[in-house]
Structure formats: structure tokens, C-alpha cells
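F.,

This is the one I mentioned.
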């Protein structure tokens, strides 16, 4: 999907989904994060709107322009460089983004994220379930919960806990597009 097309797709998501994220999901996720938060792959700023102590980055200039027009703090990732100094953030959230990254590039992206995350910082990654993964043509790599844990442990991150949303029932990932798994890591 082209960048403008993907921006337009994000803009058309449902009001019910926005209410779910704002009132149920984000409060739960924010309780796992601390300090200054980087939203990697911030899209159109849903998380930034919810969490005042966050800054977003994205590869899509349309998303960045939109976020900035809404008074949200968002910066462009240019070429694969997050525009912040080492150890700038206490927490990073990557919500339904890693599956959009080519497996050939994922290690470079994770190294860059961990560069800006402070030691002992929290890194929360959300991934879609099976049906959600299959519902977006832009998805490049499916990760199970264990795949994600293995990947991050190879990057010197310690698995803290997992949350399944909207409810902890893994079988729902086959039937519900919105089913997501969030895994919290600590950067060693």
C-alpha cells in the first residue's frame, strides 16, 4: 500500500475502535509504561492523543503531517534513523507495527529502537492475531507470541509479561480481526 493510501486507510477506522482504544486498551497499556514514551509507528496519533508524555515517530510523512496538524508531537524516521539521542526514552510502544516490517529489516529497526531506549526501559510490542494479520495486505511477517519473545530475547530484552486483548482467549485470534497480543520487555 502506498503511504497516502495507508494514511487514508487509518483515517477511516471505526469510531467504536477509537473508543475501545481510548477508554479500555490504552489505559491498560499505559499502566505498563513509565516516563517519557516513544510511540514507534505512531500512525495518525491515536496513542499520542491519549498519552501526553509521548512522542511519535513514523516512516509515513502523511501521518506525521496529520499528527502535527492536530498539535501532536511526531517526527519522521529518515532512513531508518529515529531522530533522537541514545537513551532518550524510558518506554517505547510499538503497537501493531512490527508485522509491517520486512524480516530483512526487523533487526535494524529493533537495534535503532533499543538505541533510544534507556537501560532497564520498558518496550511494549503489540501484534495482531492470525485473522488480524491476514486482514491487512501491508503485513509482511506473522509473529506468534513466542516468536516475538524469542526475537526480543535475542536482542537482550527480558520478557516481563503478556496481555491478550480484548480478553485473554487465544482461540479468538482465529475469529476476531481486532485480537492482539501485547508483550512487555525490559531492555537489559
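My design for it:
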Amino acid at each position: 500500500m502506498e503511504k497516502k493510501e495507508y494514511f487514508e486507510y487509518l483515517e477511516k477506522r471505526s469510531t467504536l475502535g477509537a473508543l475501545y482504544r481510548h477508554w479500555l486498551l490504552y489505559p491498560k497499556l499505559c499502566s505498563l509504561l513509565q516516563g517519557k514514551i516513544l510511540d514507534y509507528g505512531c500512525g495518525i496519533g491515536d496513542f499520542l492523543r491519549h498519552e501526553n508524555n509521548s512522542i511519535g515517530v513514523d516512516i509515513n510523512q502523511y501521518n506525521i503531517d496529520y499528527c502535527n496538524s492536530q498539535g501532536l508531537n511526531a517526527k519522521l524516521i529518515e532512513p531508518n534513523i529515529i531522530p533522537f539521542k541514545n537513551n532518550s526514552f524510558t518506554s517505547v510502544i510499538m503497537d501493531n507495527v512490527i508485522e509491517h516490517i520486512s524480516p530483512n529489516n526487523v533487526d535494524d529497526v529493533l537495534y535503532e529502537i533499543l538505541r533510544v531506549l534507556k537501560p532497564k526501559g520498558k518496550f511494549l510490542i503489540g501484534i495482531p492475531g492470525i485473522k488480524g494479520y491476514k486482514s491487512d495486505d501491508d503485513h509482511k511477517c506473522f509473529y506468534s507470541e513466542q516468536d516475538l519473545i524469542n526475537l526480543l530475547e535475542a536482542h537482550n530484552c527480558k520478557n516481563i509479561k503478556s496481555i491478550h486483548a480484548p480478553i485473554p482467549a487465544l482461540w479468538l485470534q482465529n475469529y476476531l480481526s481486532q485480537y492482539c497480543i501485547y508483550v512487555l520487555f525490559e531492555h537489559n
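The beta strands are 37-40, 54-58, 74-76, 89-95, 117-128, 157-165, 180-187.

Talk soon.
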